[in-house]
Amino acid sequence: MLEALKVEVCEQNHELPNNGLVVGSGGNVSGRDPATGLVVIKPSGVKFAKLTPDTMVVVDLDGTIIEGSMKPSVDTGIHLYIYRHRPDVFGITHTHSPYATSFAARGERIPAVLTPITHMLGRDVPCAPYATPGEVETGKAVVEAAAGGMAALVQAHGVFTMGKSATEATSVAMYLEEAAMTTHIAMLRGPVTEMPAAEIERCYHWFRKNYGQSGNKKVNA
Ligand SMILES: [Zn+2]
Predict the structure, then answer these.
(1) Ligand 1 center from residue 96 Cα (angstroms)
(2) What CATH number has the domain bearing residue 44?
(3) Which one of 6, 32, 165, 166 is separated from 86 by 20 to 30 angstroms, measured CA to CA?
(4) Residue span of the structural domain in which 173 resides
(5) Mind listing the pLDDT tens digit for each residue in 193-206?
(6) What's the gap in Å between 101 CA and the centre of ligand 1?
């Protein structure tokens, strides 16, 4: 069942080590099927190189295993909490990517200073207070800190990104890490200036209208 979603979720899990966002078997990606509401997620403790679509686990929103021979990710409860409370979310990516997580280590948000990430998020990256890893309270912390947005750090832990698909959530995780690295480097040389809220808002909507092949084809020249 859900073969196409298993392929997508497996591919997006492979993107994590391929982009330096995780080490070992840490981190995970899931996707929710819009038709059935079922969630496909990475199995627990399996090295990324060993992941194939067949190893993905299908669960319902209560955590009952619907299909799969392996145990789902230890973070499944976090993913399911987010899906239950965010009907607009169909993909979740969790990493401990180093630059973004260095902000989480300090309990700090990532300020909105770079357009490549503010285009995607429309705001800064908030940091939720510490919550026990692997427990539903981490899901609650993410939902509260994100406040309808598509990303949040969790203090002393790492990064959670969301999207309309597993692919979109993983893309946000990649751009978020790049922005965290560049912001960190900039902050080493002194204070940074956040973009004005109105300009962040304007760029966010412009990006959604114009970016990609489905957007507006007219060139602003
Ligand atoms: Zn984690």
Answers:
(1) 6
(2) 3.40.225.10
(3) 6
(4) 3-210
(5) 999 999 999 989 99
(6) 10
